[in-house]
């Protein structure tokens, strides 16, 4: 594995001499660990947070055998003796204790969720039963064919007492919170949010709402990254837009590093005369990654200023988003107490052709999910590759990944598709 790329400061490296995607991921993974501490939050505030404790079931869920339907509970062993004809001897509704033990051959009127009376194991749905009144008593006729245990939910069938429900680091989804609530826990320990300083750079960059001078460009990356940071639950300090002035860049980064877990910058990542981020990182701290064999995003850099992680994303919006999803997202997740995970890849037939791709680098195209004439889901490529085209990001449902060794793609060939929804974005 290539290490310590900090000595490489040449933007014009051949791809074979740049750091490969897998090696960059390995370095990131090796260099980062959790920095946040835990805090207790009520379940109402737990959605999307990363769990900071293992959660075991303190009791069985459900806590008792109970009815899955409204109907009549009976003992299956009595069925043959009574021929399915049972006196209704008691009644039990959800939320009430089970009746006293029922004499042999008796049935109990029961409602969904009610505790199963002792000794009874099967429930007939009320729609399937006939009822008769005789001598002030109610009888039911239960049709044959019900399997013993039908319509009964067993104690602990959802979760058994003591079972691990969720492990520390899990990102809490609505159904996870439901599972925690079902155990009776009202509060959970979660990791506190990662504190991120967000920095835009470039003399040309202006904030929306401000007038745009000639040559000016609005700061779309700030809003792109701020929204992406929300998907990993980070809190964001807006460090504004820095001009291309080395001292200001140095001062801002040095200052931000003192009070943040991570700094994310955009722009100035390559080595033009006006690009100061890498020099600042080298002066103030240590660079671990720079110049990747990928497209887009090759000037992405990663390092640390003291204990503060720095991720220098390229200025081109497409490169900024791709680098965030591929590298910043797992890094911030680990800093925040989660796992370093790679997005899942789905194999899909390509609805495009590539006659010639450069070897030695991994390319990530903006991919659109489409349906072909046979109803098969295929991966279509946004036709233009420009790294400044936010339109491509908007059209896309994810990224198409073309590995280093692949130099062409035929129509219909399987390609890796990485849906944005697996990288924290919501579906449109
Ligand atoms: N001689 C070389 N030139 C370039 C190289 C190279 O290796 N050698 N790499 C190219 C690649 S690849 C990329 S990506 C860009 C990124 O470089 P920087 O990170 O230094 O970005 P800038 O030069 O500052 O800006 C690039 C581009 O993006 C626009 N930009 C910047 N910030 C924002 C923002 N906050 N919101 C919207 N748009 C932004 C900026 O105006 C430029 O158009 O460098 C290539 N050049
Ligand atoms: O990172 Mo750049 O986007 O390859 O143009």
TrEMBL record:
Catalytic class of the enzyme: transferase
Lineage: superkingdom: Bacteria
GO annotation terms (biological process): Mo-molybdopterin cofactor biosynthetic process
GO function term, MF aspect, one: molybdopterin molybdotransferase activity
Pathway the protein acts in: Cofactor biosynthesis; molybdopterin biosynthesis
SMART domains, alphabetized: MoCF_biosynth
Catalytic reaction equation(s): adenylyl-molybdopterin + molybdate = Mo-molybdopterin + AMP + H(+)
CC per GO annotation: cytosol
InterPro entries: MoaB/Mog-like_dom_sf, MoaB/Mog_dom, MoCF_biosynth_CS, MoeA-like, MoeA_C_domain_IV, MoeA_C_domain_IV_sf, MoeA_linker/N, MoeA_linker/N_sf
Matching SUPFAM superfamilies: MoeA C-terminal domain-like, MoeA N-terminal region -like, Molybdenum cofactor biosynthesis proteins
Requisite cofactors: Mg(2+)
Domain MoaB/Mog: 197-334
EC number of the protein: 2.10.1.1
Keywords per UniProt: Magnesium, Metal-binding, Molybdenum, Molybdenum cofactor biosynthesis, Transferase
Xref: Pfam families: MoCF_biosynth, MoeA_C, MoeA_N
Keyword Metal-binding in annotation: yes
Family: Belongs to the MoeA family.
NCBIfam families in the cross-refs: Glp_gephyrin (NF045515), molyb_syn (TIGR00177)
Function: Catalyzes the insertion of molybdate into adenylated molybdopterin with the concomitant release of AMP.
Protein name: Molybdopterin molybdenumtransferase
């Amino acid at each position: 594995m290539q290490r310590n790329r900090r000595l490489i400061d040449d933007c014009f490296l051949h791809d074979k001499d740049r750091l490969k995607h897998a090696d960059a991921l390995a370095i990131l993974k090796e260099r980062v660990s959790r920095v946040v501490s835990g805090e207790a939050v009520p379940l109402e505030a737990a959605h999307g947070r990363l769990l900071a404790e293992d959660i075991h079931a303190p009791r069985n869920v459900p806590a008792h055998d109970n009815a899955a339907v409204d109907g009549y509970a009976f003992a299956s062993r009595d069925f043959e003796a009574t021929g399915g004809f049972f006196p209704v001897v008691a009644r039990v509704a959800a939320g009430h204790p089970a009746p006293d033990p029922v004499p042999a051959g008796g049935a109990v009127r029961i409602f969904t969720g009610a505790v199963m009376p002792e000794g009874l194991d099967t429930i007939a749905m009320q729609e399937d039963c006939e009822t008769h009144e005789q001598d002030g008593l109610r009888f039911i006729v239960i049709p044959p064919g019900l399997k013993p245990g039908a319509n009964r939910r067993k104690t602990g069938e959802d979760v058994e007492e003591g079972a691990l429900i969720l492990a520390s680091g899990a990102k809490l989804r609505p159904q996870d919170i439901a599972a925690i609530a079902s155990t009776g826990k009202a509060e959970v320990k979660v990791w506190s949010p990662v504190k991120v300083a967000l920095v835009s750079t470039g003399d040309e960059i202006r904030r929306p709402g401000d007038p745009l001078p000639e040559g000016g460009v609005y700061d779309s990356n700030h809003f792109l990254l701020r929204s992406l940071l929300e998907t990993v639950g980070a809190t964001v300090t807006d460090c504004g837009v820095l001009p291309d002035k080395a001292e200001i860049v140095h001062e801002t980064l040095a200052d931000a590093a003192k009070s943040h877990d991570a700094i994310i910058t955009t722009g100035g990542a390559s080595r033009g005369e006006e690009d100061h981020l890498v020099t600042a990182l080298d002066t103030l701290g240590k660079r671990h990654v720079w110049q990747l064999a990928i497209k887009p995003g090759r000037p992405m850099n990663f390092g640390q200023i003291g204990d503060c992680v720095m991720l220098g994303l390229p200025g081109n919006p497409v490169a900024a988003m791709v680098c965030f999803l591929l590298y910043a997202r797992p890094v911030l997740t680990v800093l925040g107490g989660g796992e370093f995970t790679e997005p899942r890849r789905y194999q899909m037939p390509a609805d495009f052709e590539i006659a010639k791709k450069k070897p030695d680098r991994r390319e990530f195209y903006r991919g659109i999910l489409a349906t072909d004439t046979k109803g098969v889901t295929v991966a279509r490529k946004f036709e233009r590759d420009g790294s400044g085209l936010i339109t491509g990001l908007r059209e896309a449902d994810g990224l198409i990944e073309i590995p280093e060794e692949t130099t062409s793609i035929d129509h219909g060939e399987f390609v890796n598709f990485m849906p944005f929804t697996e990288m924290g974005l919501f579906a449109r």
